[in-house]
Structure formats: C-alpha cells, structure tokens
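Dear colleagues,

As part of the handover before I leave the project, I'm documenting each prediction I ran so the next person doesn't have to rerun anything. This entry is a single chain, and its sequence is reproduced below.
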Amino acid sequence: MKKIQVGHLNRKHLKKLRRLQRHRLTIVSRQATILILSHQGKSCSRIADIVGQHVQTVRDWIKAFNRADRKRRWDLFKPKPRPGRTPTFDERVQQGLLDIFEESPRRYGFSDSEWTLHRLAEVAVRTGLVSSISHESVRRLIDNSKRNCSALADLGAFGVTLSEAKGLVLRTNEIPRFAQNDRLSNYWRLTMARKTWV
C-alpha cells in the first residue's frame, strides 16, 4: 500500500500548524499535530499511536488536507457546528421564571412564604408561561440564569439592607464574598431551589 503523507508544507504552513497545535479545542490541536508528524516522515500507524486516534482517522485527515485547495485547506480546521438538541425553553421562559421567583409565593395562593422548584413549575403552568415544565427544567433554567454574584456582592458593599434586597438570588457556591459578614452570609445561603421571604 502507498504511504500516505501530507503534501509539501513550507515554513509559513508549519508556523501556522504550530500555532494551531496550541488551539483551545483538542480536535484542532490534534489535527495540526497529525500534519506536523506526517511532514516529519512518521507513518500513519505511528502518528495514530502518538495522538491516540485510530489509524484510519489519521489517514482520512491527511487525505482531506491534501485534497483541499491551498486557500481552503485551513478552513478544514474550523470546527463543524454541532446543532445538538434545540432548547425546549427559551430566554423568555427563563426570565418569566425569574420574575415569578422574585415575587412572594403568597401572591399565587400558597400559605407559606417559601418557593420550591415544584411550586415554581406549577405557577409557570398556571400563569400560562408554559404548557408544561418539570421541576428539573425549572432548576436548570434558574441555575443558568444570567444573574451573577458580583451584583449581589456590590449591594452588600453599598449597605443595601436585606429587606431591600429580597428577591435577589444567589447560588450556594457563590457565597465566599460574604464570608466576613455572618448576617449576609446566612441570608444568602439560600439555594436556587428554595427562597424564604423575610
């Protein structure tokens, strides 16, 4: 069988490949490494051992690079979009849940002043925000919200009282900035799943 090797690479190409070896995406780094090793004269099976890929993957990549015209071959390094599953709930639903979360549960007919994921899901359906939603989806949407800890830390630093700040949310693992102030630390030690109104 004919030995498969990368075509001619000049200094400029090698410099570009070395830069791609430091790329944040492993696949791009690995592809650049395959081409550099092939340029150095290593066999496909030896390259496969070095980069931890199947030998056919190495062959296919070298062939694809050799087949591409000189201008478009560098586009091969751009990762192909992976569509994945489309999100079930959009930002509108996420914001709606956060708006509900900021209000007192008593407003929605609950006897106590504590939110749970199940209650948030129930209210989201009852208010027409969604036709159905699981408590796990509620947790995920709230957890992924864009509300960050720095805004809350700034409120504490500027002397905002706890009663003024009610309705703001902070994940348990984002508490360290309040470590010196026990009062704030205890108040913010509420998870996204539960919130007690003061």
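The chain has nine helices and two strands. The CA atoms of residues 4 and 169 lie 58 Å apart.

All the best with the project,
I.
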